[in-house]
Structure formats: C-alpha cells, structure tokens
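re: the backbone from monday

yeah here it is again, tokenized this time
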C-alpha cells in the first residue's frame, strides 16, 4: 500500500513539473508571438510613415500632405512625426475616422478630407486654433461638435453632401471670421440660428435641403452677398429679406414659390436672381431685347423677369407683399 502511495506521489510530482514546463513554454510562445507582432506593427508603421512622407510637398511656402484615390481607412499615430504639416488634402481614400490626435497638429491651416466615409468630427478639432479652412463634404457626418467654435480663425467651412446633418450648435456663431459656409444636400428644415448670427458670413449655400420658409431674422446676415437656396420647398419669403442690402446673388430655383413679392423690388443691389422651376401663378413674357446679343445673354427667370413679374402683378391690381399669396383667381391676363 505504501509503495502505491509513493508511486502515485512520484507521478503527481512529475506531472506537476511537466505542467509547469508546458505552461512556461506556452507563456514563452505567447510572449514571442506578441513580440513578433509588435515588431510587425512597428515595421508596418515605419512603412506607412515612409509612404506618407512621399506624399508631402511644399507649395507656396506651406508643407502639404496630398493623397488621392489610395486606401487609407485609418491614419497611423506615426503621422505625428510630421506635425509640421500645414495642409491635409486626403480625397477618396476611404478614411473612416479623423484621428483623435488631430489636435496636436497645431500648424494646420487647411484640413480637407472631402469624399471619404467619415462619420464623426472629434472634439479635439477645437484645438486647431490656426485652422482657416475645414472641408468635410461628401462624408457621412451627422453632427458637428460645439468645440469647432474654438477655431477662431476659421474662414471657410464646407459640410455639403453629408445627408444627415440637420442642425448646428449655437456656439458656432462665435466663428467671427467665417465668410464661406456650404451646408447643401443635408437635412436642414430651417436656417440654423448659429448661421443667422455669424457676423462675417458672405457666402451661404443651403441648396437641396428641406427648407419650407426663411425666418424673419434672415435680415441679420447683413454681410451676405451670395445665397443659394435651390431645390428646397420654400413657399414664401419674409418681408425682412428686402433689408439684406448687400445681397447680390439669390438663387431660388426648384422651390414652391407661387409669387414674387413686391418687397424684392427694394433690393437694389441684386445682380443675379433665379426663379426657374417654381409654380408661379403669373405667366410673364419678357419684352424682346434690343439686339441679338442682349437676347442671348438674358436670364429668362432672372432679374428682369422678377421686375416684370412684379409690374404685371401690380397691373393686375393684386400685387403681393412678402409672406402672402395671390388669390387663386389671378392669372396672367389680369
């Protein structure tokens, strides 16, 4: 019996030794595998950094990274070694995310990541205090962080064709130098208050959204000279639009306007306007041009059309003010 116990004990001891050896061997294998994987990652990072360095150029005194139609779904952290970059231009790369370390590129002046698959703007974007242009059109962005308002030098912001953006944080009205804003082809149902309160805004495109009317406060945009509102659902215009004294270009094609209000005749700085493809109640025929060249250059639904329409509506005795509509009985013959 004692011999059996001794034998069993010896076996168990040998088994325990072998289990320890196997465990240690497996741990060594795991560490070796992790070490090899780390070496591979380091090597891949170096290779990617080398490729990125090849895309860096100098133009007009600026250090620029340009990548077009190459697959870069993510950007390596080794990119931080190129923190002297002043412009990024990455188009059609399949980039899915703006890296969180973007805020460490303090020299960035232009960030153009259009035509990718980006779904989110990191809050770290607000650390780019020298940024002047941010172009994120043709992506999948749904919201804009309030931290963007910290980019005090921003002059140009393009968020067109993201499809799902429907509002902007009120804090963006603090972008005191923003002059150019493109919000076309999104889901806006009104002009956001943040936009109405941008003091320097000169150019605004809100075409192909879901606007049904303009707010009375549209007149706040006193610096605006170009306003694109094509392909919306706007049915009427507010009286206050006539107070936009600097407005020179107004595009209202493909909306649901039934009339051109009389107040627009007061907009003496208008140089180009487009009412094409609206269900206007009056059929207006422009007088013939004095010569062939004038006839060819004339915009059929432009400025002259607008003034003629207003005159015709007055002649009919049922001219309209802004935000009102003509009776159904009024027609082109008056």
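seq for it, each position gets an aa:
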């Amino acid at each position: 019996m004692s011999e059996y116990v001794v034998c069993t004990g010896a076996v168990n001891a040998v088994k325990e030794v072998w289990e320890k050896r196997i465990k240690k061997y497996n741990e060594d294998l795991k560490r070796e595998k992790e070490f090899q994987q780390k070496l591979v990652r380091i090597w891949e990072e170096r290779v990617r950094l080398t490729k990125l360095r090849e895309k860096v150029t100098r133009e007009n005194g600026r250090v620029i990274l340009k990548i077009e139609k190459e697959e870069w779904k993510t950007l390596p952290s080794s990119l931080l070694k190129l923190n002297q970059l002043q412009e990024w231009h990455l188009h059609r790369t399949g980039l899915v995310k703006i890296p969180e370390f973007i805020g460490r590129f303090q020299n960035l002046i232009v960030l153009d990541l259009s035509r990718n698959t980006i779904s989110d703007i990191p809050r770290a974007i607000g650390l780019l205090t020298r940024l002047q242009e941010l172009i994120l059109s043709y992506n999948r962005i749904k919201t804009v962080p309030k931290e963007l308002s910290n980019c005090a030098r921003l002059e140009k912001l393009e968020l067109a064709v993201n499809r799902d953006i429907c509002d902007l944080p009120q804090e963006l009205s603090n972008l005191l130098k923003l002059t150019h804003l493109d919000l076309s082809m999104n889901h806006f149902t009104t002009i956001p208050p943040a936009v109405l309160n941008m003091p320097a805004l000169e150019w605004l495109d809100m075409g192909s959204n879901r606007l049904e009317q303009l707010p009375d406060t549209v007149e706040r945009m006193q610096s605006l000279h170009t306003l694109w509102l094509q392909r919306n659902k706007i049915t009427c215009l507010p009286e206050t639009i006539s107070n936009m004294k600097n407005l020179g270009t107004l595009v209202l094609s493909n909306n649901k306007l039934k009339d051109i209000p009389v107040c627009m005749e007061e907009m003496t700085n208008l140089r180009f306007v487009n009412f094409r493809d609206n269900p206007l109640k009056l059929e207006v025929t422009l007088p013939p041009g004095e010569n062939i060249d004038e006839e060819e250059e004339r915009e059929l639904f432009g400025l002259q059309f607008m003034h003629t329409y207003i005159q015709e509506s007055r002649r009919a005795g049922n001219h309209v003010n802004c935000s009102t509509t003509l009776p159904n009985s009024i027609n082109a013959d008056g």
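The longest helix spans residues 2-54. Residues 324-334 have pLDDT under 50 and may be disordered.
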